[in-house]
TrEMBL record:
The modification 4-aspartylphosphate is found at D60. Its EC number is 2.7.13.3. Residues 11-127 form the Response regulatory domain. It comes from Thioflexithrix psekupsensis. Keywords: Kinase, Phosphoprotein, Transferase. Signal peptide: none annotated. The keyword Kinase applies. One of its GO terms (molecular function) is phosphorelay sensor kinase activity. This is histidine kinase. SMART domains: HATPase_c, HisKA, REC.
Amino acid sequence: MIKPNAKGKDTILIVDDTPDNMLLLHRFLTQAGFRVLIAQDGKSSIETVNYGHPDMILLDVMMPNMDGFAVCEQLKSNPETQDIPIIFMTALTDTVDKVHGFELGAADYITKPFQHEEVLARITAHLKIYKLQQQLQQNNLELDAFAHTVAHDLKTPLSGLAGLLELLSLECQADQIPSPRAIKHLELAMQSVNRTFSIVDALLLLAGVSRQQQVPLQTVNMTDIIIRVQERLALLIDRSKATIIVPEKWPNALGNPAWIEEIWSNYLSNGLKYGGTPPHLTLGATMQEDGFIRFWIRDQGDGLSKEQQKSLFTPFTRLKNHRQEGHGLGLSIVQRIAERLQGAAGVESEIGQGCLFYFTLPKAEPE
């Protein structure tokens, strides 16, 4: 039996057009310690969910007008209700496409006539999973808030330190007395400060992406974004003597221009560091059948093993065989941004065959 939590009893909504079934479950679950809500049809069940905020829904599949599948689909399409676990209820004689129910987002099925121990076991298991997911989301929000606060607070002393080092460097040059070793130490100190600034900016971006509740999507001009990224990386491009091949025309996609610029900036800077000597990078886009566009960058570097690929998008992880400086936040930011823009990010690679890094965005309708 599940004991009431600190905020009160767990709430279960029963949706069934058969009064006997509803009364049986209501009595059993109430005795088991739950707060129980009831609805006798699909339309009223959605209204009950909106004001009752249940922790779980027991949903009959076979109902007139609006069946359980339609109810499930509507609830799962709403961000406010999509995480509530739904257990379908069916009779043994019902012909039900259970695979379809799972595709819609259902957590489980139970069959009539009900076995109380089985029902309670399934409810207990899925409520536990639901609460763990909620706790994980809350922990992530708190972690992002903490990262944002720490990164923001670090910027002020770092700015002061950078200014003092710059003044010291100018004074040393004016006096013409410092040794080459002292000048080298000043340069290393400035490099450390700049790397710390980079980490702070990355943390602020990562936290900002996670904390923003609503992400408005707009048609993006990918040509302009690539031009801005190349301007940002002009010094690195020049030093590496890189060749970058860019399409003359890009397909229209939906996204956030500033965030997409960060994705390309991370992918391009990694390609310039690891994409061959000198780097040879090819950018492109591929239309997918699911209504998304896959944007990609291919390099001619050493490639990555399957094990390396697994950890590549994990925050603060850097590959041991890469000698370039970095803080390991770049690709985790890419993944977080892509997911917030309704897409995904990833890599395809084999040792000796280079890498193809990609991200997907929803296709925009032609203007």
